[in-house]
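re: ur question from earlier - yeah i can do the single chain one, its not a big deal. heres the input i used so u can compare w yours
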Amino acid sequence: MLPNYNLDKIKFATDKQTFERAVGLYKNGKITRFKEEDGYFSATVIGTKPYQVTVSVKNYDSGNCDCYLGKEDVLCKHMVAVAIHAVMGGKALSEKDEQLVL
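and the output i got, formated as tokens:
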């Protein structure tokens, strides 16, 4: 299933630091065990430890992460990275894709 968002929507609604860190996680292959089930994308994101992340198919900023920000219901780099993976399907990002236009 395709997400109801695209890379431009993620860029528009995510701060620069979070987006850049999420791109780094995605580019460095830190998204593992990615799957779709029951209207959510889920994955393990390898950070300082493995984080369990879910992101809604409808809204990338709706989901869960067991990192300290995610536990406070704050959109974290792990959730954004999983959303990027959902949009890109694991394909490489272009230089333009990585740029956040302000």
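The beta strands are 31-37, 40-46, 50-56, 63-65. not sure if urs matches, ping me
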